[in-house]
Amino acid sequence: MDQFMFLFTLSIFILTLIIWGFKTLPKEKWQIMAVLPKEKSLHGKWEGLNLTYYGLLCANAYTFAVIIFFILGASAKIPLPLLCLLILALCMPASKIVAKLVEKKTGTLTVGGAVFIGILISPWLVSFINLTLGRVYLFTINVTIFLSALCVAYAYASGLEGEKVIPVQIITAGLYSVTALAGTWLFLNGYYAAAFLESLIVTQVWRFVSEFFRADFRGGLKITPYQLMALGGIAYSLVIVLLFPAPDRLPDLQMGLNALWNPWMIFLIESIWAAAFFHTGRSVVTGAEISFHVNESNI
Q1: pTM of the entire structure?
Q2: For FRET with 175, which of 16, 19, 37, 260 sits at 20 to 30 Å CA-CA?
Q3: Residue 28: its pLDDT value, please?
Q4: Would residue 41 be called left, alpha or beta, if left means φ above 0 and alpha means ψ between -120 and 50 degrees?
């Protein structure tokens, strides 16, 4: 598949998803996807665990971002599976920990906090792997190329964060999608630093601006901790690009696409989806009661 067809296919897919989402998802029935019985109460009913469509959409978005990350990274000849698992293992818990520290809520997740932690630790995690496993197995991962693929993938996923703001949802989804597509084009044409900075700066500047439209508690300051994280991430990214310049080489898109058609890679992607849904799909702020009866007319 050539670059134009790849980007065109992504554009049509994302546009279709956005149109469907904003016509369908505001409806009340798109809250609870399923209820799993946990234990029987004294009244004969069962306590239920709610599985949410929000969690399903988040898991789908994260998995889609991981697929894009794998394609871009493999096209630049970066060994990704181990790094991806390490980043997810750090960022997924961080989304809940940061939200708890900032918003004082145990049942809330924040993509912004997870992204900040990911940007903060990724350069040094990659450097550590280069100094350890890289020396043993004779490979080197360029930090800027890695972060470029990571931030482009983040831009694809974060439009589905589900922020409850003024019609900012559709603005966020549209802006982030265009940003992600532009970042993908820059990456595939070898402009790694530009792809990294474009994806990060646009998403974090909008993150800073959109926080002013939120009505929920985001800390006691006029400038929220999430806004400070966004600005700090931008400044930090400029330093990283200077410290770790990217080499002058073009990625191979077909190599990136071919890397997906591997049984172990498919299993890894499915496992990431399952872990993401387990993390985001279980509602801890709602409950359910389930009762069963027999339809005697059908016996």
Answers
A1: 0.86
A2: 260
A3: 79
A4: beta
Confidence at residue 166, expressed as pLDDT on a 0 to 100 scale? 47
Q: For 102-124, what is the mean pLDDT? A: 76
Q: Could you read off the pLDDT of 143-176 as tens digits, one per residue?
A: 999 999 989 988 887 754 544 434 677 788 889 9
Give residue for tokens 């959109």.
210
Q: What are the DSSP calls for the chain, one per residue?
A: --HHHHHHHHHHHHHHHHHHHHHHTTSGGGSEEEEEEEEE-TTS-EEEEEEEHHHHHHHHHHHHHHHHHHHHHHHTT---HHHHHHHHHHHHHHHHHHHHHHH--SS---HHHHHHHHHHHHHHHHHHHHHTHHHHHT----HHHHHHHHHHHHHHHHTTS---SSTHHHHHHHHHHHHHHHHHHHHHTT-HHHHHHHHHHHHHHHHHHHGGG--S---SSSS-HHHHHHHHHHHHHHHHHHHSPPPS----HHHHHHTT-SHHHHHHHHHHHHHHHHHHSB-SS--EEE-----GGG-
pLDDT of 43 above 60: yes
**pLDDT tens digit sequence for 234-251:** 999 999 999 999 988 899
Query: Would you state the structure tokens that stand for residue 5, as one six-digit string?
Result: 């067809």
Structure token pair of residue 183: 């970042």
Average pLDDT over residues 129-147: 88
Q: Which long-range contacts (CB under 8 A, 24 or more apart) does 205-212 make?
A: 205/230, 205/234, 206/172, 206/175, 206/176, 207/112, 210/163, 210/165, 210/168, 210/171, 210/172
